[in-house]
């Protein structure tokens, strides 16, 4: 049997404030929500005189469906194989093993807990305390710790590429749906929700019930959890694999696992709920086609999750929607703790419904399912407990998953896969790039251009859920084993693309940004972390071209001296090393950026122009 958890993803990403939702949804908010962030996208681009240097993707061509994952915001992140991360903060926080601990008790987990070790491109956040005092030198020093893992000669590749329109691309028959031997679609399902709501327990239970966790493994988890006085976490431990997660009783990184329903190959992305790990949760959200929002129905716990300041129920729902996910299942968990009360469920349904609608979810895309992961009620079969059976006649969770609409995919575009993880089998000299195909298709023998190195590799084999598969298409979350390429040239944050349709590689960009609630102004020379899809790079603001009116998008001031909170502006940034990037107008997945400093997101934006280097 394949391992239940295929990999754990660790990302360094940005927490977006809830108000960014409309900006990232690319839609016009209702009047009452119209705030400056929306007009960032709506701004009149003629004011910017963008002289596009390179663009290869005609977004109108070859799109199957109306909205694809490639049209979503990509998070800024980088991940690594599991087991290469650990805490540095010495915090001895742990859950009490009995569950339902108030979230306030968890506040001792510091952001520094996620210090990346053992990677040259690590961001050492453990020194961020000095940064938070606003010392620019500390910030510079800190960012300088971001060593560069991009190979040499990269920008040359990017700038010298032959730019071809997607109109020239003709997909082969096998790339399109309908030709497949395997009829099940892959569904990337993010499991999100407030800390301790039972996400991992629910995921573990599902995997166990669906035969993805052996009886032997389950017994082992039960025995070990009991020994540590954390018996109630036995199912969660199927996902929370690391010693640190188990000791602390919290999920820290997204666990990737698979199960099959009647209609889908489901990719479970079990996300952390603790607020300090929202950046990691975002990595799941970025890949999600749909989400299960887990609610703790216990009295008091649902209310804490909905708290506007502290509640991750609110934040996760908003984030998920902002990444373009519009189908959500609300798993109202721990119904056993409220005696399967219909009144409690109705109250949650009413309050949450109002909130989810305000996030932009349509009523028809919200399914609420009362259940108990602990008591196995309403997960993969109708409930057996009469207290629930007496009043609930809707779908059980697995049924609800099968009722989701298949996501729209860009099958007909040239292949594009941002690399989220790289797995190396050094003994055999094998290298695999992991990630979700945003567009196109691959099969063994396909040639891929590995960017930013610019080398061509050949797909040796493909793996989904630890099983070899003959092809992978847009939306599939796969490991792509490559041959004919030096493993060191395949890097997380890179992109696999079609050799004739290379993505751009650049380190000088014009961005349109919205500054978030910063206390320190952004100046020319300010040092930042630049994040795009799974790549991150140290960056410096080199020019401030204009301030834009937040409502109209018109230029209100040329060459401003500084940017302060809530301002919208056009700036140029120089990255320390090149990244794979596209203008937002051509490719949303590679065109959305996040700027961070002091361990916080200070601005979000889009790439408006790739600026050619003057050699
Ligand atoms: P984070 O990933 O850290 O946000 O937590 P989580 O949402 O994954 O919660 P987890 O699965 O770790 O469970 C937290 C606690 O809730 C554990 O003690 C579980 O036993 C308990 N729990 C989970 N599901 C249920 C349920 O259906 N009923 C009851 N009573 N407790 C549950
Ligand atoms: Mg968890």
Automatic annotation (TrEMBL):
<dbReference type="GO" id="GO:0005737">
    <property type="term" value="C:cytoplasm"/>
</dbReference>
<protein>
    <submittedName>
        <fullName>HBS1-like protein isoform X2</fullName>
    </submittedName>
</protein>
<keyword id="KW-0342">GTP-binding</keyword>
<comment type="similarity">
    <text>Belongs to the TRAFAC class translation factor GTPase superfamily. Classic translation factor GTPase family. EF-Tu/EF-1A subfamily.</text>
</comment>
<dbReference type="InterPro" id="IPR000795">
    <property type="entry name" value="T_Tr_GTP-bd_dom"/>
</dbReference>
<feature type="compositionally biased region" description="Polar residues">
    <location>
        <begin position="133"/>
        <end position="143"/>
    </location>
</feature>
<dbReference type="InterPro" id="IPR050100">
    <property type="entry name" value="TRAFAC_GTPase_members"/>
</dbReference>
<dbReference type="InterPro" id="IPR027417">
    <property type="entry name" value="P-loop_NTPase"/>
</dbReference>
<dbReference type="InterPro" id="IPR009001">
    <property type="entry name" value="Transl_elong_EF1A/Init_IF2_C"/>
</dbReference>
<feature type="domain" description="Tr-type G">
    <location>
        <begin position="184"/>
        <end position="409"/>
    </location>
</feature>
<feature type="region of interest" description="Disordered">
    <location>
        <begin position="72"/>
        <end position="143"/>
    </location>
</feature>
<dbReference type="GO" id="GO:0003924">
    <property type="term" value="F:GTPase activity"/>
</dbReference>
<dbReference type="Pfam" id="PF00009">
    <property type="entry name" value="GTP_EFTU"/>
</dbReference>
<keyword id="KW-0963">Cytoplasm</keyword>
<comment type="function">
    <text>This protein promotes the GTP-dependent binding of aminoacyl-tRNA to the A-site of ribosomes during protein biosynthesis.</text>
</comment>
<dbReference type="Pfam" id="PF22594">
    <property type="entry name" value="GTP-eEF1A_C"/>
</dbReference>
<keyword id="KW-0547">Nucleotide-binding</keyword>
<dbReference type="InterPro" id="IPR054696">
    <property type="entry name" value="GTP-eEF1A_C"/>
</dbReference>
<dbReference type="GO" id="GO:0005525">
    <property type="term" value="F:GTP binding"/>
</dbReference>
<feature type="compositionally biased region" description="Polar residues">
    <location>
        <begin position="90"/>
        <end position="110"/>
    </location>
</feature>
<dbReference type="InterPro" id="IPR009000">
    <property type="entry name" value="Transl_B-barrel_sf"/>
</dbReference>
């Amino acid at each position: 049997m394949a391992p239940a958890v295929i990999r754990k993803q660790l990302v360094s990403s940005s927490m977006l404030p809830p108000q960014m939702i409309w900006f990232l949804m690319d839609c016009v908010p209702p009047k009452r929500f119209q705030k400056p962030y929306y007009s960032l996208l709506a701004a009149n681009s003629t004011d910017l005189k963008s002289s596009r240097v390179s663009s290869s993707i005609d977004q109108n061509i070859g799109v199957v469906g109306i909205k694809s994952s490639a049209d979503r915001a990509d998070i800024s992140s980088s991940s690594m194989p599991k087991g290469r991360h650990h805490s540095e903060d010495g915090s001895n926080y742990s859950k009490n093993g009995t569950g339902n601990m108030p979230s306030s008790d968890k506040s001792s987990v510091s952001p520094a807990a996620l210090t990346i070790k053992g990677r040259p491109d690590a961001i050492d956040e453990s020194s961020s305390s000095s940064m938070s005092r606003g010392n620019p030198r500390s910030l510079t020093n800190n960012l300088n710790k971001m060593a560069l893992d991009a190979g040499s000669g990269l920008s040359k590749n990017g700038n010298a590429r032959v730019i071809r329109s997607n109109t020239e691309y003709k997909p082969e028959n096998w790339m399109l749906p309908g030709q497949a031997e395997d009829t099940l679609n892959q569904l990337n399902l993010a499991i999100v929700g407030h800390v301790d709501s039972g996400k991992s327990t629910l995921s573990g239970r599902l995997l166990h019930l669906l035969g993805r966790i052996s009886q032997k493994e389950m017994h082992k988890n039960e025995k070990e959890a009991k020994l540590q006085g954390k018996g109630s976490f036995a199912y969660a431990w199927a996902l929370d694999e690391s010693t640190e997660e188990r000791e602390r009783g919290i999920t820290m990184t997204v666990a990737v696992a698979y199960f099959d329903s009647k209609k889908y190959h489901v990719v479970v992305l079990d996300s952390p709920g603790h607020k300090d790990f929202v950046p990691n949760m975002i990595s799941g959200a970025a890949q999600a086609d749909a989400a299960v929002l887990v609610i703790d129905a216990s009295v008091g716990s649902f209310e804490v999750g909905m708290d506007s300041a502290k509640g991750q129920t609110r934040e996760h729902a908003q984030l998920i929607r902002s990444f373009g996910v519009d189908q959500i299942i609300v798993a109202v968990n721990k119904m056993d703790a409220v005696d399967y009360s219909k009144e409690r469920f109705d109250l949650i349904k009413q309050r949450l419904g109002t909130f989810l609608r305000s996030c932009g979810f349509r009523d028809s895309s919200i399914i609420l399912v009362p259940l108990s992961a602990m008591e196995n009620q309403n997960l993969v079969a109708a409930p057996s407990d009469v207290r629930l059976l007496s009043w609930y006649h809707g779908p059980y969770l697995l049924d609800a998953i099968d009722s989701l609409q298949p996501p729209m995919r860009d099958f007909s575009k040239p292949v594009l896969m941002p690399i989220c993880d790289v797995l190396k089998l050094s003994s055999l000299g094998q290298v695999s790039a992991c990630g979700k195909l945003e567009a196109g298709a691959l099969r063994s023998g396909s040639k891929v251009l590995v960017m930013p190195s610019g080398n061509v590799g050949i797909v040796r084999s493909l793996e989904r859920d630890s099983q070899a598969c003959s092809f992978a298409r847009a939306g599939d979350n796969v490991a792509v084993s490559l041959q004919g390429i030096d493993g060191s040239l395949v890097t997380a944050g890179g992109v696999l693309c079609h050799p004739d349709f290379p993505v751009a590689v650049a380190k000088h960009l014009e961005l349109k940004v919205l500054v978030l609630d910063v206390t320190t102004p952004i100046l020319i020379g300010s040092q930042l972390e630049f994040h795009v899809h799974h790549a991150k790079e140290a960056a410096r603001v080199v020019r401030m071209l204009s301030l834009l009116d937040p409502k109209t998008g018109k230029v209100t001031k040329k060459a401003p001296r500084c940017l302060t909170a809530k301002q919208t502006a056009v700036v140029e940034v120089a990255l320390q090393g090149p990244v794979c990037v596209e203008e937002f107008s051509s490719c949303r997945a590679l065109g959305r950026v996040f700027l961070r400093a002091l361990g916080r997101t200070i601005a979000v934006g889009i790439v408006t122009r790739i600026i050619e280097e003057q050699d």
